[in-house]
Design a protein that fits this description.
Length: 178
């Protein structure tokens, strides 16, 4: 399952381990950073019919405050993983659980236009131009390029994260002198 981790570490580990500083930094991670990143993930799937929910998990160590964000482990989370990580070419056989035929819109090769794209482009489900309902027992899927939503979020939000955590760091250090 695709997961993004964001962490706060400082070279002066004595400060990170100081209880007052650690408390302020954890609060900033939980009240500002984690909700902000979950919101960024939600933006990527805002127009999806089957939206995954994103969960935050704490994974702190003695020298780092870490929050992991990942989609829930359900069908929508699996679809998110296929989109963000990409898929190789593969055959899709009729599932023994389903009755009859696979059904999908098809207008020939090149008829599907994705609204998401590699590099973090997002915009919901794609469309089929000139398509009609097609039924088959098995299809060969050409695969799709990874959308890399995690990398896009990390790149676009890096500056915000550093500013937010630096402000928390300064508040934490100031609280030690009181």
């Amino acid at each position: 399952m695709p997961t993004v981790a964001f962490r706060v570490t400082r070279s002066r580990r004595a400060f990170v381990n100081a209880p007052q500083v650690r408390k302020v930094m954890e609060a900033a991670m939980d009240s500002k950073a984690a909700p902000h990143f979950v919101e960024e993930f939600d933006k990527r799937v805002a127009n999806w019919k089957h939206k995954p929910t994103f969960q935050t998990k704490k994974q702190d160590t003695a020298s780092a405050i870490i929050r992991l964000i990942a989609p829930a482990k359900n069908a929508a989370g699996k679809i998110y993983a296929y989109v963000t990580l990409g898929t190789p070419e593969h055959d899709i056989p009729l599932s023994p659980k389903s009755a009859g035929w696979l059904a999908f819109m098809w207008g020939g090769p090149g008829s599907y236009k994705a609204k998401t794209g590699p590099g973090g482009k997002f915009g919901g489900s794609g469309t089929v131009s000139g398509g009609s309902m097609t039924f088959a027992k098995q299809v060969h899927h050409p695969g799709n390029a990874p959308r890399n939503f995690e990398g896009d979020i990390a790149k676009k939000e890096k500056r915000w994260f550093f500013r937010t955590m630096d402000a928390a760091w300064k508040r934490a250090i100031a609280s030690m002198s009181k």
